[in-house]
Amino acid sequence: MEARFFVSVRLIRSLRGVVFKEMKLGVTFFIVILCSALGAEELPDFASLSSRDFEKRQASQKAVNDWVIANHEAAREVLLKKYLKTDNPEFRVRLIPLLERSYFKPKGYVGIIMSPKLENPNARPPGQGLQAREYRGVLITKVFPETPAEISGLQNGDIILKIDDWEVRGESDLTSKVALQIQKNSPQTPITLQVKRGNETIPIELKLGILPTPSERVRDMPRTSFGVRSSSTFEVFEQMKEFKNWLDREIDKERKNLIADRRL
User: pTM to 2 decimals?
Assistant: First the structure.
């Protein structure tokens, strides 16, 4: 009798453990399904990227681009899967700039073209060439429309002397240093520029935008008088090459996987 009772107790306990494990699995499964459903609802309308209606395509492109910016970490994998699985050429063409946006980490952006400003144009240290000249500030030569620069009131001819507490001073590579100082911040970061306008020095506050992709920046870069793009463009071309090589590798991996699947 006691033996039967002992066996029954052990059986009940083991069954209770099984039921508890099943309940845990059920809850976990429910959470996974719920999260998947929520994630699916948050995805933008990708189908309209290949719509015959131009306005629908443009609206979808903007919506997906905004989603990529807001979900940078997850967007690359989602976009890559869609790119590799589709045979629609229009869809692929629309996905490429979005993939490029997701590939690069979002960086801060003001929306200007600039050149270094010599503190004393006639000053040259003895025995040294132009590269050793001292520059103080960068001259704004162009303000792009609908950018933080235009919204904040920056103008052509303004000279940026400070970015927050960082003084804009150096040699001929000063514009590159200024760009790095801006781009080390995330989009939406507030900054204060100390700007010389005429005989006045004024503070200008702005909130950084998001740096355009390398392909977008190449279109906006000025050319020299000989029609050759400025030296800063080479870095952008290297970034474009890096993105292209990454995408080519992913396409190649997908092809190899398809061949392996067919052999099985």
Answer: 0.68
Give the per-residue pLDDT at 42.
75
Q: What CA–CA distance (Å, rounded) separates 75 from 32?
A: 19
For 125-151, the pLDDT digits (tens) are 444 554 556 788 999 999 999 999 999
pLDDT value for 6: 45
Domain ranges of the chain: 2-103, 108-120+130-212
- Residue located via tokens 């001819």: 157
- Quote the strand ranges of the chain, DSSP E: 108-109, 112-118, 135-143, 159-163, 166-167, 169-170, 190-197, 200-207, 209-210
Range 108-120+130-212 has CATH code 3.40.1670.10: no
DSSP 122: T
Map residue 129 onto helix, strand or coil.
coil
